[in-house]
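Hi R.,

Here's the chain you asked about this morning:
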Amino acid sequence: MGLADDLGYAHSSANPLHRVVRWGAGTRPGGWVFSRVLRHLDDVVGRASKGRQSAPGLLAGLAVLDVTTTGRRSGQRRTSHLIATPYAGTLALLGTNFGQSSTPAWALNLEADPHAEVTYRNVTRAVTARPATPAEAEEIFALAGEFYPGYLNYRERIGESRRVRAFMLET
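And the predicted structure, written out as tokens:
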């Protein structure tokens, strides 16, 4: 049994609304909007449901993993709401940042200190993040593209402008 099973982490099948939201979030305008509002919306939904629901879960059928890292400059704990990819019994993270030009802070934090905590539906586990190998990263992108095609759009938009970080979470 791995981390994904331990947490019960899985994405639901997409209904018609979920497919539209997944498509829209993967577009350039959708990525821009979601990169600015989704975290705040997810905070509200999480508080209202006492951690049982997330905004991407309701809108797109995507499971949200809360990843708490240590800020590389501040040393303070930082929590990010992320979509993880179940992979090889564990979970993997892709630092696409909605296809934006900058690397997400959580990815830089994990590079500086790989020790983190993950929470899904009020179950928390300590993890260590390691960079995915190039072969693993390719497999993770392929799997992630199956449940959320936006990842493939994000990767295409980023192109060679920056390296997309991929991490494997290990317990």
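The first helix runs from residue 3 to 7.

Let me know if you need anything else.
M.
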